[in-house]
Amino acid sequence: LDRQILPDGGHISRNPDALVELLLDLLPLRQCFVARDRPPPKELTDAIVGMDEDGALRLVAQMLDAGADPGDVLEEAKAAMTVLGDRFECEEVFIPELIMGGEIMKQIAEELKPRIKGEAAVADRGTIVLGTVAGDIHDIGKDVVVLMLDVNGYDVHDLGIDVPIEKFVAAIGELKPQVVGLSGLLTLAFD
Questions:
Q1: How many CA atoms lie less than 13 Å away from 132 in the CB half-sphere?
Q2: Which of the residues 28, 43, 114, 132 could staple to 161 if both were Cys, CB 3.0 to 4.6 A apart?
Q3: Distances from the Cα of 184 to the Cα of 39, 49, 137, 167, angstroms
Q4: CA angle 98, 78, 105 (to 5 degrees)
Q5: More confident residue, 52 or 75
Q6: Higher pLDDT, 109 or 156
Q7: How many CB atoms lie within 10 A of CB 44?
């Protein structure tokens, strides 16, 4: 290591901070290789990742008609979003693919929701108000959370996207929820 020269001319052995910085710079590359080592995706995951909207919806219908558990179908669809997220981090896909994958996921979730909810014999667990904060129109994550809470017995009131503070306050006053969830894209929080 003491012979390794850094771009600024320093030696790793003489500059432990530089070694840490170098390793941190390489960490995202390692994650990309780890993501590639995952088992090959299932057919539905492959359709979603491949942006085949019609094919993904057709596969969901076929899986359900064949008696597949709706929860398992949802898990496979969520796995596709994980693959897309990994590929986004590795700069193999970009924002449009994430948005399209999210739209496909929303359609699948809407198809599965009544079937999952019908299977769940869960008592009302409480009221939750959710919405995407004003100035933000991103709702992929929020929609997945709404689905999961709804099918698990919560009375969920989704206020939508770009929700002003006043609408949250009015919903809280009217519904008296146990939980209020504010969704927002993390990068917008830094602006």
A1: 19
A2: 132
A3: 32, 24, 8, 16
A4: 55
A5: 52
A6: 156
A7: 27
Pull the structure tokens for residue 115. Answer: 């079937």
Q: Which residues contact 167 (CB under 8 A, 6 or more apart)?
A: 131, 159
User: What is the structure's pLDDT at 28?
Assistant: 54
The DSSP 8-state label assigned to residue 41 in this structure reads P
- Token pair 């941190």: residue: 24
**C-beta separation of 77 from 48 below 8 A:** yes
Per the structure block, which two tokens stand in for 40? 């090959």
Direct distance between the N- and C-terminal alpha carbons of the chain, in angstroms, rounded to an integer? 41
Indicate whether this model's pTM tops 0.90.
Answer: no
Q: Measured between alpha carbons, how far is 46 from 40 in angstroms, rounded to an integer?
A: 9
Helix or strand holding residue 117 (H, E): helix 95-119
Q: Which pLDDT tens digit goes with each residue over 151-169?
A: 777 899 999 999 999 999 9
Q: In what order do the strands lie in the sheet with 179-183?
A: 155-158, 127-132, 179-183
Which SS3 state, helix, strand or coil, does residue 163 take? strand
